[in-house]
Amino acid sequence: MNSNLISNILRFIGLVLLQVLVLNNINFMGYVNPYLYILFLLLYPFNSNQSLFLFLAFLLGLSVDIFEDSGGIHAAACLVAAFLRPNLLRFSFGISYDHQTLRLSSTPLGARISYVVLMVVIHHLVLFSLEMFSFSHIILILNKTLFSSIFTVLVILLSIALFSKKYR
């Protein structure tokens, strides 16, 4: 087993446990709840097998769903975000992604922020739309998406900055 595989397994397990044991208990003003487990989707190697990545994204969301008893909404949101990730990478990083020379820690800050923001907003919009599942609650869906996305993006960017090898 190589170190990349071991680090991805540990990241998967650690983020799921952190999410369900600690972060799901945070709920500011009824709208704000950080979903740090999305970090696994963001940091998964870019040049890996896409089918395996989609399966792992589904498994990640399903793991959170099992602990939260949320009926598959996290699995669906993770799967949509994982499916759209190649397009988001191409949009945010352009030619670097097309030539598979991309390392998230060495990308420009603006491109990194746009990638994280787009991924989080898409995940949260799908998640909260499935949670409410009604157009009559569109304002509530948008409020929860906006405020939770802002908090999640801040936590993710802080985590990337703290745990990146570049900053050590």
From TrEMBL:
It is a multi-pass membrane protein. The keyword Aminoacyl-tRNA synthetase does not apply. The chain crosses the membrane at residues 6-23, 35-60, 72-93, 113-140, 146-164. It comes from the Bacteria. Keywords: Cell membrane, Cell shape, Membrane, Transmembrane, Transmembrane helix. InterPro entries: Cell_shape_determining_MreD. It is found in: Cell membrane. Its main location: membrane. NCBIfam families: shape_MreD. Belongs to the MreD family. This is Rod shape-determining protein MreD. It comes from Zunongwangia endophytica.
